[in-house]
Amino acid sequence: MPQLDLGRVTPFNRGEWAASTTYELLDEVQYEGSTYVSINATSYVSSDADRPTTTSGQSTFWRRVAAGFDHKGIFNDALAYERDNIVVYSGTSYRATQNTTAGILPTNTSYWSIFTGGVGVYQGDYNSANPYIIGDIVRYRGSTYRANQGVSAAETPTSTPAKWDYISFGFNGPTVTELTPGANVAYETGDIIRFRNSIYIVLNNLNSTNNNPQTNSGDYTTLIEGENHVGAWAASTTYYPRDIVSYGNAQWRCTAYAVNQADPRTATNFWEKISSGIGGRGSWSASSVDYFVGDVVEHNGGGYLCVLDHTSSDAQRPTNTAQTAWEKIVGGFEWQGTWSQGAYDVGSVVEYDQSSWVATRTILASETENPSINTGFDQMVKGFPDTSAITYAIALG
User: In the structure, what pLDDT confidence band is assigned to residue 4 with cuts at 50, 70 and 90?
Assistant: First the structure.
């Protein structure tokens, strides 16, 4: 009667598989992280060609009963790898799905699959002489990028954006370049430029020939707002936001891109007043002169401060009692000589009957009354007629 060897009913653990070793049916071994059981009916001496991960070994000698993985560390393209080997390549872990030969990269999906995703490996500043692989992280012009596929030399993150993913946005400082429209200068994402005393970061590759932050705002982000003092306002001049001009004793800030716009006082959609000054404009003129808040004029011996932007007219004459544009700041008089019928303005001083008279209201040319009886005049200095002839006649007796 045949003898039953009860010791062979369950697998017998033989430890790590090794070549040139005799194995029996149901022997159990560990190989590359997995557990295998011998399925060959008779004992045999193992060889490298029949190891558990080869086609021959799997079909004739071994059956995997527990899957596992064997971590091999950083990928080495000089080595061959076995099925279920785990390697780290550019920050990501890959599992071999079949045996490989040397030089088969983990990015080859016929032999490898991603085991655990990683961010990548930081390679420092981008070097145009170097190719890059998936997961490589570089810094380029202040920003950080990660290669999402193989990248050839000279394929920069901004010239081949489909091959790179943004990790973090930065800028290419501390150098600041003055942007001059029409100068045919190429800029790349992250460059810092100055335009009309403001500082901007370039968001897209561009050329300054037909591009600037005021007309192409989508290509820039403002880093520091500055003001650009360009002197006195001039007609037919293009102005940009935050340009500062002087006009009519006031300072004005441009609020919108202005091409051939009217003066700041008129084109209120393009300008805002930021300060008013005080300045002498000489004698007041009624000849359609523009006056602005802060202007000072002389009229009929008095000094007047403009409190309302306006174009001169008789209705806004400084001495007109109904005007609203002027405030008297210095009193004064204007000598008009000997009175004769005619028009006189407030403050006019005339001589009549050896006395001085000042007009306290506008005297019309149609008024015939002399200052002694005209209620529009006040006597300033009382005089006396020349009595020398009368005295001489009395003396002669």
Answer: very low
What domain range is 142 assigned to?
119-170
> Does some domain include residue 270?
no
Section 357-369 average pLDDT: 91
Residues 138 and 100 in one domain: no
Give the residue-averaged pLDDT of 273-279: 83
Distant-in-sequence contacts of 103-109, Cβ < 8 A, 24+ apart: 103/77, 103/78, 105/75, 105/77, 105/133, 106/75, 107/133, 107/134, 107/150
3-state secondary structure the chain: CCCCCHHHCCCEEEEECCCCCEECCCEEEEECCEEEEECCCCCEECCHHHCCCCHHHHHHHEEEEECCCEEEEECCCCCCCCCCEEEEECCEEEEECCCCCCCCCCCCCCCEEEEECCCCEEEEECCCCCCECCCEEEEECCEEEEECCCECCCCCCCCCHHHEEEEECCCEEEEEEECCCCCCCEECCCEEEEECCEEEEECCCEEHHHCCCCCCHHHEEEEECCCEEEEECCCCCCECCCEEEECCCEEEEECCCECCCCCCCCCCCCEEEEEECCEEEEECCCCCCEECCCEEEEECCEEEEECCCEECCHHHCCCCCCCCCEEEEECCCEEEEECCCCCECCCEEEEECCEEEEECCCECCCCCCCCCCCCCEEEEECCCCCCHHHHHHHHHC
Domain presence at residue 81: yes
Whether residue 215 contacts residue 199, with contact meaning beta carbons closer than 8 Å, is answered with no
pLDDT mean across residues, the chain: 87
- Structural domain contains residue 322: no
- Predicted pLDDT at 388: 56
pLDDT tens profile 179-212: 887 888 988 888 999 998 889 999 888 888 878 8
Any domain includes 18:
yes
pLDDT in tens, 129-165: 999 988 889 999 888 999 988 899 999 998 999 999 9
The answer to whether residues 47 and 149 belong to one domain is no
pLDDT at 1: 43
Domains of the chain: total? 3
Closest C-alpha to 264, from 279, 246, 242:
246
Give me the residue label for tokens 């033989």: 14
